[in-house]
Design goal:
By secondary structure, this protein is of the alpha/beta class. The protein contains ten helices and 13 strands. The chain has two domains: 199 residues, NAD(P)-binding Rossmann-like Domain (Rossmann fold, 3-Layer(aba) Sandwich); 88 residues, Alpha-Beta Complex (UDP-galactose 4-epimerase, domain 1). Helices cover 38% and strands 17% of the residues. The radius of gyration is 19 Å and the shape is globular. Bound molecules: nicotinamide-adenine-dinucleotide (NAD) and galactose-uridine-5'-diphosphate.
Length: 325
Amino acid sequence: MNILIIGGAGYIGSHVAREFLDQGHTVTVYDNLSSGLEQNLFPEEKFIKGDIMDYPALVQAMKGGFDALVHLAAFKGAGESMVKPEKYSLNNINGTVNIINAAAETGISNIVFSSTAAVYGEPVYLPIDEKHPTNPENYYGFTKLEIEGTLRWYDKLKGIKFASLRYFNAAGYDVKGRITGLERNPANLIPVIMEAACGMRPEVQVFGSDYDTPDGTGVRDYIHVNDLAVGHAAALDYIAKNGKSIIVNLGSETGLSVMEIIEAARKISGKPIPVKITGRRPGDPAKLTASSQLARELLGWKAQHSDLDTLISTSWGVYKNQGKA
Ligand SMILES: NC(=O)c1ccc[n+]([C@@H]2O[C@H](COP(=O)([O-])OP(=O)(O)OC[C@H]3O[C@@H](n4cnc5c(N)ncnc54)[C@H](O)[C@@H]3O)[C@@H](O)[C@H]2O)c1
Ligand SMILES: O=c1ccn([C@@H]2O[C@H](COP(=O)(O)OP(=O)(O)O[C@H]3O[C@H](CO)[C@H](O)[C@H](O)[C@H]3O)[C@@H](O)[C@H]2O)c(=O)[nH]1
């Protein structure tokens, strides 16, 4: 297929692009490089530097005879979205509405969309399946839920088929070492640990050690980016073949605590990784784990690389050459 990947220069998008290229598809990346990196682009793909807020540029880019588009371009700071909602409403909602309208205008009828487990909010039960109530605790999660609603309407009104992929915590780097771009100013746990391990920051702040979890620190479902990438290809295949839209979780179905991850990172890196226990971060649930049964059933998809050792060793493989390690 001929595929347009919007946000394909980013952390997850570059892994998704790599997977589609590996499967023999033709890939064009559209990205404004606001957080994406030229370093994450591959020689086999075409690159268009453009912004999703620029509707005419989007329409122009989409005239490339594409069979499908994958949309990953967004701001992703859950905390930041609570203090700068205008930034998130514009880029994540308006920008995506531009993409959906431009797709309808240019006749692209298959869309794979990056959603998030943040649409669920505080869990009512675990593991979280797709029937779990959606009550986002932050505005970022709301922007993704809002887009899922619009996609449902465009399915009915414009015949656009979509796969909305609710990722849990994306982590790790390409198991073959082909992607080495570091995220700028990361706030997510694993890159923060990696930065501390290689001397780019003094310590890791552990946000709370008094949760009702085995070691008192927060538990999350970490899903390796190569697994996410395979999930995108499988989801596109499904909607293109079945002409049916889907909303599915992509998670490892395993809970890992903050301290378990820090201990593994200490072992793998051989670095001390100083830790400071601070207060809880507002809005953080104690524990989140996914049910990925639906992805298994519909897509034949299952996490293959999301064990703790692979998550940390592939990340360390990239970070160990950085900073003062
Ligand atoms: N990282 C996670 O744990 C996680 C979890 C759930 C969902 N997601 C979603 O996955 C997607 C990708 O996340 P990521 O972790 O790779 O982040 P990222 O910041 O590395 O990637 C986002 C990409 O989109 C581009 N972009 C942003 N705004 C743009 C605009 N206006 N025009 C054109 N390009 C633009 C950026 O330059 C970047 O390349 C996002 O939609 C995010 O909300 C991420
Ligand atoms: O410096 C840090 C960063 C995080 N944490 C803890 O580590 C765990 C993971 O936190 P992240 O910030 O890495 O990720 P979140 O679970 O908060 O959220 C991530 O995954 C969600 C889906 O599950 C959403 O997609 C969201 O946008 C994405 O950032 C949490 O218990 C958090 O309290 C720390 O202790 N110290």
